[in-house]
Amino acid sequence: MDSNRRKFLKIAGLTAIAGVAAPSAFNSLLRGEAVASTGHGESAAPAVAGKQYGLVIDSKKFLADPSLAERCVSACHSIHNVPDFGNKKDEIKWIWVEKYANCFPEHSHLKRNEALEQTPFITMCNHCAKPPCVRACPTQATFKNKDGIVMMDYHRCIGCRFCMAACPYGARSFNWRDPRGKDEMGKPFIKRFNRDYPTRTRGVVEKCTFCNERVLRGLPPACVEASAGAMIFGDLNNPSDPINEVLKGNFTIQRKPNLGTSPSLFYII
Ligand code: SF4
Ligand code: SF4
Fold it and tell me: Quick check: CB of 261 below 6 Å from ligand 1?
């Protein structure tokens, strides 16, 4: 066991005993007290060169079309075989809708604009440039790929959920039940099965992969395709990528930027 891994397990063990797992473990991880290299030829350290895919979300367009958010969620969950267990406790979500106050809790909510209250803020994994989840994973089941996408290797996931405790955005879900199973009425948890995408098993963590399987084929993420121009996907590190023009021309905010994770999702307010 290398010393970084030993340090991480010590931190995780102590925080679990103290019953204060998420915040203190998260802070330690961000300070770099536990750093693991991945087994995928990529570094767990922040990407400083190469691609960093990101997303701009135009919240005004989601306010203007009340069914748009649901269409984006449906596009993602149906092509990725995301199960619906029918209750909040077991919920698996790759992309979901939050209210402004939940999405941006660090902002002042005093005398807030009413339109903000009504706006459905769509959110997902931030594919952070400095992802604490990657540092937390003891088996390197989650890792940052060469395009800056935070991926999951389900075969390496041991279900410890350290990555979930480390993620300050609630972007990861745990399969308490078998997603390939059926409910009491005999209906499958995966409503529309896509044979071209793998299913997961009970006991593993899952989340948005920025549609890596589509991006590698030159396609936009499924939610972006369904968004009718309300979401713009591109390489934040490529100055000539149109996403950087959008970012230059609009006021945008990120979720919890003060945590130092460098989220790759930007919201036009
Ligand atoms: S949003 Fe959470 S799961 Fe996604 S990269 Fe950041 S810390 Fe990891
Ligand atoms: S980028 Fe792909 S995987 Fe991520 S939320 Fe959108 S459709 Fe789902």
Answer: yes
Q: What is the DSSP letter of 257?
A: G
> How far apart are the CA of 17 and the centre of ligand 2, in A?
35
Instruction: State pLDDT tens for residues 7-33.
Output: 444 444 444 433 434 444 555 555 544
Please tell me the residue having the least CA distance from ligand 2 atom 5: 95
The mean-pLDDT minimum among 20-24, 207-211, 244-248 falls in: 20-24
How close is the Cα of 171 to the center of ligand 2, in Å?
12
Domain 53-268 in CATH 3.40.120.10? no
Question: Do 232 and 243 form a contact (C-beta atoms < 8 A)?
Answer: yes
**CB 150 near ligand 1, within 6 Å:** yes
Q: Is residue 70 helix, strand or coil?
A: helix
Q: Is 121 helix (H, G, I), strand (E, B) or coil?
A: strand
132 Cα nearest atom in ligand 1: 7
pLDDT of 176 above 90: yes
Q: What's the pTM?
A: 0.85
Q: For residues 144 and 210, give the distance between their C-alpha atoms in angstroms, rounded to a whole number.
A: 12
DSSP state of 54: E
- CA nearest ligand 2 atom 8, residue: 76
**Residue type (1 letter), 234:** G
What residues does 122 pair with on adjacent strands?
97
Residue nearest to atom 1 of ligand 2 (CA): 210
- The arithmetic mean of pLDDT across residues 186-199, rounded, is 96
**pLDDT 10s digits, 32-83:** 443 333 334 333 344 457 999 999 999 999 999 999 999 999 999 999 999 9
